[in-house]
Amino acid sequence: MTAKHITHWIGGKTWTGTAERRGDIYDPSTGQVTGTVDFASTEIVDDAVAAATEAAKTWGRTSLAKRTTILFAFRELVRGHTSELAALITAEHGKVASDAAGEVTRGLEVVEFACGIPHLLKGGFSENVSTGVDSYSIRQPLGVVAGITPFNFPAMVPMWMFPPAIASGNAFILKPSEKDPSASLLLARLWAEAGLPDGVFNVVHGDKVAVDALLHHPDVAAVSFVGSTPIARYVYETGTARGKRVQALGGAKNHMVVLPDADLDLAADAAVSAGYGSAGERCMAISALVAVDPVGDALVEKIKERVAKLTVGPGTDERSEMGPLVTGPHRDKVASYLETGVAHGATLEIDGRDHPVTADDAAAANGFWLGPSLLDHVTPDNAAYTDEIFGPVLSVVRAKSYADALSLVNGSPYGNGVAIFTNDGGAARRFVSECQIGMVGVNVPIPVPMSYYSFGGWKASLFGDTHVHGTEGVHFYTRGKVVTSRWLDPSHGGVNLGFPVNS
Ligand code: NAD
After folding, report:
1. Any idea what the Cα angle at residue 24 is, between residues 21 and 28, rounded to 5°?
2. Which residue, of 188, 230, 254, 503, is most buried by count of CB atoms within 10 Å of its CB?
């Protein structure tokens, strides 16, 4: 097989230079290197910003009618290429094909939301605010904006950002994860095919060098970031210190609280789906299962029955329900929590290192595998509980009461997602009100908001004031302006040095 070579997309075309630095791209199901990705230098990022700056001048003035025509065309093209995008994601990330197609669908919903941009940008108008004076508000694009995205959703997370940004009249520079960079280039080609002018959407690949170049460039007005908490904090602090608007979404440790009256079969199905789907590499994955007495033992038994039936294997194999982890070092780090967890007093109920891998290809022996794992009796001081593991390790924490469960949830430094399972509407309602978390599910384990609401956590899961997509996303990528206008009556006039007051 010929190794692929992934490079930048700047000004509507593939970059043709020779990179000074490159990274390897892996197939996580075999552990083999399948290609390389060019890493952008500061100069290459400067070229992308220059192309975007030029394009933004015209794009920001392009009519809403023309912009939406291009958005609708892009939506159709992405829909038509869903399988191709999903295949690129599976090949580099490892998630199973249906899961990869699912993330493209959720990303498409944001494109569909952005197709309504004429309505979203509508301002207000007040006639005769003072005698002969009218007032109205408009929202205008920022210019050049950038998005820096993580490995776990190589299509969906960029699509949280660029549809509203571009629809609002900005030019966009995407710096995707270097671990699975291919989907971003197919998206760039689809934009070009949809008729987006050159330079409005650009992709620079790379690492900290590219990120720092974007954060320091004076012509980048705003940065959206999604990734781990330490880097989110760094991006927020560095970007805002340079006068940029920044929304930086960080890591998570999502709890699922199971109250004694819950339907335990429903709760066990949900815990397995949300804990092990995408190998736990989802920012909304459940990683702490808070079992309120006395449901713990029964819940653990039900989870064990279900996990025993899960098929782990390559994402390209239709039998697989869960794929490998993204890299070897990440797999090793996640697996290390099984030992750390036990050393801190937990019991290892399911050891994912023993889970069979179902694969026809012998090459799968070297994949980055770790099966679904379950730690029970995890205490709040256990590293398996305090750290974001970001893998298929579910920790069961026993709580004595609703109040104990709530204090665990609110004691977490993270505040991305949370779920409560109960048949008591009053308890659920109280929990929704009392939990300090950005996205809450009631008998729904992964409460990812629809595109017309906004996605974002609280506390160390988000640095900045606005969440992504929905109206908050459109506000992030635009600036408000209020106009007060008077068309003079020929009879009116005269100097007045007093402060304007209404008459
Ligand atoms: P990461 O923080 O390692 O990388 C994210 C991006 O930052 C990548 O583009 C990467 O190239 C860049 N980056 C990495 N190190 C950097 C550095 N030192 N300086 C500047 N840039 C750097 O995250 P990841 O491993 O790709 O993704 C997993 C993380 O993302 C998890 O913590 C997960 O919770 C989080 N995540 C959060 C959300 C959310 O909505 N809150 C969504 C998806 C993923």
Report:
1. 160
2. 254
